[in-house]
Amino acid sequence: MVFSSLIFLYFFLPMNLVLYFVCKNLTYRNMVLIIFSLAFYAWGEPVWVILLIFSAAIDYFHGLIIERNRGTWKAKAALISSIVLNLSLLGFFKYSNFIAQNINTLFGANIPLNNFHLPIGISFYTFQTLSYVIDVYRNDTRAQPSFIKFLLFVSLFHQLVAGPIVRYSDIAQEIDERVITVTEMYSGINRFVTGLGKKVLLANTAGEIAEPFLNGDLQQLSTVGAWIGIILYSFQIYFDFSGYSDMAIGMGKMIGFHYRENFNYPYISKSVTEFWRRWHISLGTFFRDYVYIPLGGNRSHHIRNLLIVWFLTGLWHGASWNFVIWGLFYGIIIILEKKLLSKILNKIPAFISHIYLLLTVMVAWVFFCFTDTGRAFAYIGVMLGVGSNPFYTVQDSMAILNNGLFFIIAALGCTPVVPVLKKRMDDMLKDWKYKDLAFDICHPAINIMLILLSTAFLVGKTYNPFLYFRF
Amino acid sequence: MKSKYINLIVFFTCLVGIGILNIFAEDRAVSEYENRTLEQFPEFSAQDLFSGEFFKKIDIYFSDQFVWRDSFVRISSEVKDLKGLPGSDGATVIVQGGFNDAEEHGSPPEIGASGEEPFNGPVETIPSEPDIEPWLTPVPEAGAENKPEMTPGPTGLPTLEPTPEPTHVPVQKSEPTPTPAEEKDDNGRKVGKILIYNNSAMQLFKANTEAEACYADTLNKFKEKAGENIKVYSLLAPTSIEFIDNEKYKSLSDSQKDAIDRVNEMLDGVVTVDAYSKLREHKDEYIYFRTDHHWTALGAYYAYAGFAEAAGFEAVPLERYETETIEDYLGSLYDMTSSSTLRKHPDTITVYKPFVDNEYHVWYEGPVKLKVIDMSHAAQKNKYRVFISGDRPLGIIKTDVQNGRKILVIKDSYGNAMVPFLLPHYEEIYVVDPRQYGKNIFKLIQDNDIGEVVFLNYALIVGDKNFAGLIEKVMNQ
């Protein structure tokens, strides 16, 4: 199931919330959440839901073993066993065909491919359980003695299929004890609705407009058209993914869970290093804490460590070379920035750094967008005006004229303009005694408009993929 | 603090309220607004359950039966129209991945069998709303303005009415046989483009000189095999984009005139029919549908006038025909684009009723009697089927003309609107749709002593090699 589906919005979520609040006892509430989470997963993966439970069970037991044998070789063995098992599951379901294909092409071997499809969210939940076991081993957190509670952490539908990657330690307390306040629910609702709007109104629309440019005939694509296409793709992927995170964070807040922020206006960054502190934060910190620092961080083999991290970051996004190229591209730029560029970037005017960042990110998205690397390079060729492609066609001007307003709204949506304006208004009206009331009326009014408009778009939609679903 | 509850109440009321309304709302079979049947609650099967198909169907069902669906669809298309800059003329290009993907060839249409439902549009991007084409289901009331004196379909053959025939759309990107996929773009994706401008949808044409040569080559081979005594014509009908009155948008599409000229140049021994200039003379008339990729019967008539010159007979003046009209037709291009502009400007189909006595049979396992102009289709979704009842593998019309002339029309669905005009000139007319016909075409010609063959298709078929492949197939069966 996806958050931006009507059955989720008007059947699953209200049922879940009503049953949740009807139960007063935390144990029952947790049961409600688990049942709904498994149903949520089974909706898309009726078979692999078993794998999810199996994976949770493995890490649950490993966690216990580590805790009981803390400080002994047994703990270490359990840690290694858990890492091996988790990565094997991920490797088998996500990477086995990729590896086989590469061996087949390289050595002319003939390893048969399996035809499983990738179980939804496996990349997310393996990382979550992996981080749990490592944290227990490092004594950063206590092992969860109850399997039900552990399963709740793993399967919680808010973040199950598309992140954010929630660390067990972040919500360990909240599994046992949650406080729900009106203010929290209030802001959770706002957050959820914002995410819904970002996904349905902005990401889907950008995807629709981008389609002819990205997936059309490359020979006919103009330079301007190639840029339009990749700009729209940049909008789409940001609103899609951050919208999903907003919805997850919002739903968490509604019932007393607090997940960490996953995005912080990445497109306003001034360097790639900054971009990655603002983009998919939960993934970046995962690799930082569990790969980069254990490898030695910046103290030993700095460049090697960076390349490994970025190779893995790329590979995590998909079992295909284009993602590896995408990751390594970032790795190399970040190394350059650390060694050289950062001094320059600090000195030049801010708008030039912004342009540098946006251009780099857009070029990178080309590799992310096309699994076929040949096509990605050809597309970049068109963007650079290499070859015989036209510079500009009628179709480009049509796309700009017909969607001009959308471009402006989407560009503004990538900046913190809304929170800034809200803050300004708040300051301006601070002496007005009905200020709070006015805000409390405006919020639901805006929310209901966004919900109904999103509903209209979903009902009338022809297009609603979650980009992050493949990972 | 208390006022904070407003947000909570509004949010929950909205979700729970609309949720409850959905549970109690009655299911509808058809959306007249969208011109399609709506998904019903799926039947349970263990296989569907484990493959996830069952839940997918429920998703579609839920969305299709959503309360106030029509209003929501309208709101979304109207809001989407607002995203342009002022001064834009609203012209858009819509890309169809998997354009025309599913085609006649999927399942041989057997009378009474329930055919596969064809699937248009980008499959992987439409998880919950596949274009399940409801041609088969009569749309109640949709043809209410039809004259009551019309006979409802072929008498004596009531079983034929729900004939589950597949879509009528001519081949342009279809894959009839597993031939090499040359019509795919460089990424292996099938792409077709539709321009919407001035309340009309038009397919864009991409010239492909290789495919043109292939077409000409195949026809030349056909002529050679058919022999001296059989006259072979080639009629390529330009499509609506060719006569658009806006130079800027015209430039989006390659010239069909040039493509037709190039093909005609290469033809050897095949008589070329100049439908193009006839249509151009009348380009300001209603010769193409706005919401459908076909020409109107009027457009077909002008092409027929061109054919009459080539075939050496006098075209019957249009005044000779009695006409009937069908209002509110939303055709294939509306289905593909769901454009609100098109929806607001539906087409009118005018039919010219044959004055020559005739008997029309289509052949599957055996003959089935049909009508050349079959107004029963006026009440159904695919109203273009009023012309010779849509695409059939083989149709045979026998008239009382008694001049001994026999013609074989090898056509796509463009041919359907023109065939009725041939009745006054031929004693026997054989209509073959190569996408469905599975027998040797020369055998048909010899067995029936046919003297003339016309290849009657729209110009887009020379944009890829499919058509040539199909002709090869029926030549070598």
Summarize it.
Chain A is mainly α and 471 residues long. Helix content of chain A is 73%, strand content 0%.
Number of domains of chain B: 2
Number of helices, where a helix is a run of at least 4 consecutive DSSP H or I residues of chain A: 18
How far the N terminus sits from the C terminus of chain B, by CA atoms, comes to 81 Å
Low-confidence region ranges of chain B: 97-191
Helix content of chain A: over 70%
What's the gyration radius of chain B in Å? 24 Å
Q: What is the averaged pLDDT score of chain B?
A: 77
Tally of contiguous helical segments of chain B: 14
Protein chain pair with the most extensive contact, residues per chain:
A-B, 72 and 71 residues
What does this structure look like?
By secondary structure, chain A is mostly helical. Chain A has two domains: 6-178, no CATH class; 184-459, no CATH class. Chain A has helices spanning 6-22, 26-44, 49-68, 73-107, 122-137, 147-155, 168-176, 182-215, 223-254, 272-278, 281-295, 302-317, 321-347, 350-369, 373-383, 394-413, 417-428, 435-459. In chain A, helix 8 packs antiparallel against helix 9 (223-254). The longest helix of chain A is centred in the N-terminal third of the chain and has 35 residues, at 73-107. Chain A is globular. With 477 residues, chain B is α/β, with parallel strands linked by helices. Chain B folds into two domains: 4-87, no CATH class; 158-476, no CATH class. Chain B is 30% helix and 17% strand. Chain B has 14 helices and 17 strands. An eight-stranded mixed sheet of chain B has the order 9-8-17-15-16-14-12-13, with helices on both faces. In chain B, helix 5 runs parallel beside helix 14 (466-476) and helix 9 (297-311) crosses helix 12 (413-422). Chain B is elongated, with a radius of gyration of 24 Å. Mean pLDDT of chain B is 77; it is low at 97-191. Chains A and B meet through helix 1, helix 2, helix 8, helix 16 and helix 18 of A and helix 1, helix 2, helix 3, helix 4 and strand 3 of B.
